[in-house]
Amino acid sequence: MLRTLSPRKPSILPSTSELFERFGRLVYVRCRQILGEEEAADAVQEVFMKVVEQRSKFRGEAQPSTWLYGIATLHCLQRLRNQKRRRDKLAEASDLWPSDTGFGTADERISLARLLSEQSEELRLMVYLRCVDELTADEVAAVVGRSRKTVGKHVSAFLAGARLSLSEEPTGSAS
To answer: Which whole number is the average pLDDT over 145-163?
Structure first.
């Protein structure tokens, strides 16, 4: 005997604060499973920011917990992909970095790229144009709209600080 299924009533999405109270732990556990303890709390915040942005996309065909679980999973997987992409780009950039800057090994160049990524966009541009593209200080100054002296000062200060920072990092090799 076949039974006719009645159409499901769409599930109503509670407020974001109620979702957080009810399912915050579920989202945290899922983020921790994928990303680890260190990144889980940040990922939970990002997931609930997505919930605020994507409330209108909730169709009510699944329970809110299922919807949140899916958002958390996709978000964490995207974070992993972004981290891998970032590592790949740093490795690629380290291969492009000229060896005559004093940063010879791949590890040093990757560390240098990491340090550079922490700087302002303007300084990153100055250093990249000067050291990678090997433009003159005058050419870099024209691109960034600063004086040649300012460009030289900022690039030199960054490179000196980077050398100091890299000399303080453990090399991982036995003496």
So the answer is: 88
